[in-house]
Amino acid sequence: MSSTILTNVTTYPIKSTQGISLNNALVKETGLELDRHFVITDLNGKFITGRTKSALVLVNSNITATGLILNAPGMPELRITYNNFSNKYQNVQVWNDEISAQHCSNEIDQWFSMYLNFSCRFYYLGEHSHREVKGLDHKLSFADGYPLLLISEASLEALNAKLEHPVAMAQFRPNLVVSQCLEFAEDGWHKIRIGEVVFEIVKPCSRCIFTTVNEITGKRNKQKEPLSTLKKFRQAKDKEIYFGQNLIALNEGSIKVGDKVEIISKHPPQEYSVSN
Q: Is the pTM of this model over 0.90?
């Protein structure tokens, strides 16, 4: 088999909304530049995701020199400008972490509240915000637990071969997609180099109900697919279901689509039970 290559790079500026495909990207300690640097919360500061508000996956972002431009079904276009953000910081909750986050503006709060039909607020990972990966001296954005997620095309193909209705890679929300490797080869990788960056694969990614949300319709699959099928061959002893690998970047640098993926070192892959 020819060398493994990077085939897709995706950043998700707003947690749980649509990703933006990039031809090249700067990788920082927190992951891809701008990835999960915005989060939507309830009025108490608890984060909101597509797990409970699946319509978020239909919110489209475009990056500009001064901020973002947002579009969503039935909503007027919204321009987000960094210079208009408030100077107020408030603690927001992402899982068990409390992060001091910069409140953006009442106008943006109202836009998301109207779209979701739910009172909410919108925050940015400002210069005074700080969060670390658990157990590692490594900065983190509003991502679930790790800065980056990698999945191979072969792994998705192996899953889709078991599904009645194939799913798109977008339902798993990876930052990095690679091709020209065996299915689940990434399970055994420990350190890899892509472009200028060395990555350490620190943990398989446990999957939840969010993977059942169709990225085009914003609706959940009633049969809980593909999670139900994944459970049959990707459930570990801890009863979690895993698909994809969490990464941290060991240095900052640039990567681009077409870069070779160099496997620097390997480790024993997680074991999974298989059920009928």
A: yes
